[in-house]
Write a structure and sequence with these properties.
- With 116 residues, the protein is an all-alpha fold.
- The protein has one domain.
- The radius of gyration is 40 Å and the shape is rod-shaped.
- The N and C termini lie far apart (126 Å).
Amino acid sequence: MMANSSKAAASRLAAGDISHPPLDDRAKDEIGALAQSFNIMVGEMNRLSGEYDRLVLTERTQLEGLVSGRTQALEQSREMFRLMAESTNATIVYCRARRWESRRRQRQTLLLHSCQ
């Protein structure tokens, strides 16, 4: 009976299932020692799997933070560029309007002088 449960546990482990209950390792012979070693191995695999999961979560959190920070910086940069572009455009429009007004006054002055 012990050999069948050991074989089934080994098959599940080979398939990636490390969640099975420990094997009965109370026997004081080689099979008991093998079951005890198997249980220790599965326990270590569970510990490593948990450590891996925590590492993945930590790395994901750090990457999400970096992406969020970079996205925010990009949005701020884009807003600054938009404001500078609007300001530059307004300055250009203002300068063109002043130039147009100056030319209009010059024409009026010329017209006034030519009429006199």
